[in-house]
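Need tokens for this chain, all 441 residues.
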Amino acid sequence: MLFLIVYVIIAKICSSGGKMSLFSILAAMLTFAVAVAYINYRTIRLPAVIAIMAASLALSLMLIIAGKFGLVQSKNALALVLVKVDFHELLINGMLSFLLFAGALNIDISHLQARKWEISLLASLGTVVSTALVAILVYYLVPLFGFHLAFIYCLLFGALISPTDPIAVLALFKSLNAPRQMSVFLEGESLFNDGVGIVIFLSLYQLAFSGEALTFTSVSVLFLQQAVGGMVYGAALGFLTYFLLKPIDDHKIEILVTLAIVSGGYAFAEWLHVSGPLAMVVAGLFIGNQGRYFYMSKKTRESLDTFWEVVDEVLNAVLFLLIGLELLILDVHWAGLLLGLAVIPLVLVVRWLCVATPMAFFKRHQEYSPYMIYILTWGGLRGGLAVALALALPAMAERDVILTMTYAVVVFSILVQGLTMKPLLRKSLAMKQSQAEKEQI
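Here are the structure tokens for all 441 residues:
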């Protein structure tokens, strides 16, 4: 029955010639995502987001192959539908606020405080260094495949690909039931380093396309306004929520208040020119820790967690479906595909350098789980945020090259790294247990 529903959805889209309302498009995508998630749960039991993305990639590839044999109507119709969905606008100015808030809501701030120095260094300096290293290496790699990128565009690619995507990371570790002491590094880093990455990207974007000079002062002011301003604003939102919910003991009203704070607060952050993503992270941490234990009844906590868990699952399903379907609107040639494959190990090596260097210092004073550096390196997934930033670039020849490299890294990180994280985590846990048994003897 579900296969029949999926077939009808695809047939409806393909026969529409791209003429579908936004509601119909979203309804079709959500139904497809839910159908894939259900089939996956009943059969192969992959992490849901990976299964949904793999299914949408498979669908995209089948339509592309069909187009090569002259059946172009279906591919073109679906591509026209996707063009209507502004992926950058939908994620950056829509879904991101809810996804980050839902992710931060269930993180114990005491775990973050225990690793605050590692997380701070990885999320700030690590992102800056990764941006520079990726840019330098890509600058010399691209000409080998017949392309040319000015160094400023290599820096833009470095800025958008360096932050680990909080959406992808949180979804994966939640599905894998990773131990909290392991996942706190990646969760904490991923929730904060997107703010740093976006500030770097916006600064470089200004230099590349506005014609204005980029100075240390202008970058510093932008960083303080966006990053620090976003965190202060997020704390204010958290305190406002605490003030509004303290005298109320009705879980329905309390859920509606948090929903209004996230949607309205994120929109107001744009008007204030502060980082909305960082504001949502801080507000989520505040409400999920201070608010949860000081003014919420047990019923309210359970209802709030259930509501935001459902929101998180639904939006993640749509997001990873869109990532897979975006393949239909990419203009990829063999040279571009080979370049994308070559960039994957380059990004991984840079990630390893930016993780191993600071962790080698911290290991002198802290004890970590076995293979922690490899877990941080391999678990640093890239996802919708990188694709959305790449799609924000103006139409130009360099945009296609950057988008192809970005897409290759994102698909590899979610499908390959995501699917192989569980064995790595199990190996680390087994070694930790073995070490504990030896110490007891």
